[in-house]
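Job type: complex structure
Entries:
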Amino acid sequence: MDQARALDQEPRRSPLHGLPVGVKDIIDTVDMPTEYGSPIYSGYRPQWDAACVAALRKAGAIIMGKTVTVEFAMRHPNKTRNPLNPAHTPGGSSSGSAAAVADGMAPLALGTQTGGSVLRPTAFCGVVGLKPSFNVINRAGVKPNSESLDTVGLIARNVPDAALMFTTLIGQSVVDFSEQLPTLRIGFWRTPQWPSADKATGEAFSQALPRLAKAGAHIEEVDLPAAFNEMYAVHSSISDYEVVRALEYERMHFADQISATLMKKIRQAEKCDFDRYVEAQRHAAQCRLMLNDVFLDHDILLVPSAAGEAPLGLQSTGDSTFNRIWTALHVPAITVPVFKGHSGLPIGAQLVAPYGSDRKLLLCADWIHKVLT
Amino acid sequence: MDQARALDQEPRRSPLHGLPVGVKDIIDTVDMPTEYGSPIYSGYRPQWDAACVAALRKAGAIIMGKTVTVEFAMRHPNKTRNPLNPAHTPGGSSSGSAAAVADGMAPLALGTQTGGSVLRPTAFCGVVGLKPSFNVINRAGVKPNSESLDTVGLIARNVPDAALMFTTLIGQSVVDFSEQLPTLRIGFWRTPQWPSADKATGEAFSQALPRLAKAGAHIEEVDLPAAFNEMYAVHSSISDYEVVRALEYERMHFADQISATLMKKIRQAEKCDFDRYVEAQRHAAQCRLMLNDVFLDHDILLVPSAAGEAPLGLQSTGDSTFNRIWTALHVPAITVPVFKGHSGLPIGAQLVAPYGSDRKLLLCADWIHKVLT
């Protein structure tokens, strides 16, 4: 409150002036403990603010507090519950950030995504999650998980709020959502993971496509070249090789304080050797260029955000299978809460745009959000 | 010495068992101060070892000490002198690591390269510098400068030593340098920077090419497609956008403790906006794939390591113009000290291989080193 009152006396620094923001606890803050979701770092106080936190403070935002992260932003669940139904997982690993925004604790939050750690929890909690183009939001002061994949993401109640946060962080002018969009060419891709999507997700998309067409969009069902099917294995190889090494220090000295879930994952990940990693990186580089061709005919791609609603129970944070490929392809992706599942929990639609077209993605996402809700 | 004696009692953990290694002070060490070459971090003690330091300790190496880095691994010179002639710069930013190995303080050292910060100082100090393929050596615990470019590099007295350190760090078997190489197809590229190379460099390459051919290599002068000429500007755009953001916290709170050299660089770098950055990343991604075609006809590329010998004076660390493009292309590059300049200081030859072909690069570099010295 002191910070808010002080900011009220100042000229407005940015559209975020005076707004409270939650920060995932994988991101360093100089004035609050940063524990990376691990007992190894219990009470740890960094000597700096992460670059993204410093940028928020410079813009006049107030860091409300740290939000719970899954252990080292991986898989082992932490204590957060889904505010829409506490018996269900909030998703992970940006569990606390998604739950905080969904529950009204803060209008904005920072998360990170290596697989689906922003898109999945925001879909499960019924808020908007934006994973911007790779590396456009700086990662200095974010605990590395897999450096070829880790992306700082933004969580907000709606698309215009996410856009305000994004443009402020990258130093662009605000997005004008009253602007009339030209006819939107939407490519709907079921993805190879479609069989794992639940019935409600299938029904939701079947009903949504004609509604989007009726509202003026040009919808075409697309099938990406076979090389993209391998991007799921490619994501795993890159992630495996890198995470094993990123946690070298913790594995050497604090193995007993690493969860059994993570240890199991690490032991499996150790099987990815240099040659498989290099081949995965080569494949990813090629697919990134091939994706440019896909976007010649489509402004954005529409795909599921997750296999369905937030699963019941807190033993797992759900599956990131619908998100991983886009993280590895370095393109911006957003989830908007436009559907409902059979338990009444939200189901998101994921939209994907070409690398660097984050602004266009936000405009399209807002239009689709308005049409479908 | 205590560590060395203790390791002597143990079974041999790796080829690096008991070997002393110097660590550039941009890389975190839990048992020694890490100051990033900046008064802002005077006396700072990290809570962890960087992943690459932990991996070295696990392999039984001894961290001898921290080596001087230029401020935040950028440009502003620090106190290190060139051990071959103290009136000359050792190069930067891995100044201390290159000088330590050249002076016999340690047989091995870690550096980092964002532009030419491993290849240039090692060329100036007459040692071997290896910048491996991007991200194959983990960067967790390395202070970020430009995350799309920063690469952990290795410094050694000769190629086989560099190879021992490299294969140990990535978990490969040792390289067998007695292996007979098939006829080496070397592409010699003058690069668009050739006019800035000094007379001695020109003479050295003119004499080296026939010697390599006589020793059995197939040498062809090549000219890369015009798109590669733009990679110099592309490197600057990526570096500019990212470094300004990576130092957000320090700029906000400790601007008075940032050198005038760095502040000037930051102010100029701030001109690179999101659109220019995105365009640069797109261009780099395309050139990385185009480079694969260049390597269809050549096992390696041979280019200068620097414009000439280490310049006289300590006001500047010299120019990284001959190294930057390869850092941005993410391919492995090595410098071997095979020539001498007019002041008697070393001049290096830089060799470049396809992404992931670090092992082949080491084999070729050793062969070339033997032929030319």
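Summary: The beta strands of chain B are 20-24, 62-67, 108-113, 128-131, 151-156, 185-189, 218-222, 300-304, 333-340, 346-352. The longest strand of chain B covers residues 333-340.
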